[in-house]
Amino acid sequence: MNQPTDTITFLGTAGARVMVASQILASGGLWLDFGGTEILLDPGPGTLVQATKRKLKATKLKAIILSHRHLDHSGDVNIMIEAMTEGGFHKRGTLFAPRDALDEDPVVLHYLRPYLEHIEVLKEGGSYNISDVSFQTPLRHRHPVETYGIAFKTPRHTISCLVDTRYFDELCLHYKTDLLIINVVRLESGGPFDHLSAPEAGNIIKSLQPKVAILNHFGMTMWRAKPWEVAKRLSDEAGILVIAARDGMRFDLSELD
Ligand SMILES: [Zn+2]
Prior knowledge:
Layout: E1 6-12, H1 16-22, E2 27-34, E3 37-41, H2 47-53, E4 61-65, H3 71-74, H4 77-84, E5 94-98, H5 99-102, E6 118-122, E7 126-130, E8 133-137, E9 150-153, E10 158-162, E11 179-183, H6 198-208, E12 212-216, H7 220-224, H8 227-238, E13 241-244, E14 250-252
Parallel strand pairs: 3-4, 4-5, 5-6, 10-11, 11-12, 12-13
Antiparallel strand pairs: 1-2, 1-14, 2-3, 7-8, 8-9, 9-10
Helix pairs in contact: 6-8
Bound molecules: zinc ion.
């Protein structure tokens, strides 16, 4: 039998409204395959199309996680629940989401909820399990809606997904993992934006010292600056391998070993 491996497929790298609405970049979130435990994180618009194009099977998913309810992270959550459960004929899987994605002005339709095996509410400081994968939501991020970053632990690796947020110092304390995936919407710091910029991401990477950092979720200013060039610059500054995610990129975590 083959050794179990951990892989991450980027079903989209677009961040924020303009990039998502124009589909200059896709917006399908991350498909995690941790030794056969398949998890979908932040199914933005187009996830179903991007996944089926890459022969990823929704029926294999054990869980869908929403870091927050913004549309670029949740637009396809309902169709992915339907696909995972084969239209509700096979009750299956767990949905993890913040309370405000489920209660007020919910992004998850009520008629689909009984199709799921469980719904778990994400909270600051929470710990959760999906088969032999565990994850924590150490911090509530500074973002207009309830938002949590995710730190995963598989039997082989640790992975953080540092999702949308305004910069604050505690971000540099809670996501110490082998691999850091960080949402970098903006090229420059400053202004009234609840998103990280490239210099802020650089500081976080230097503090957390992951083996590899992957930039993701690009807004227009990052895209115009060519994310792979920004990544190269941050890599040189931090002395850590920083790469820019690409639509469809599959990252195999055995590259970290
Ligand atoms: Zn957001």
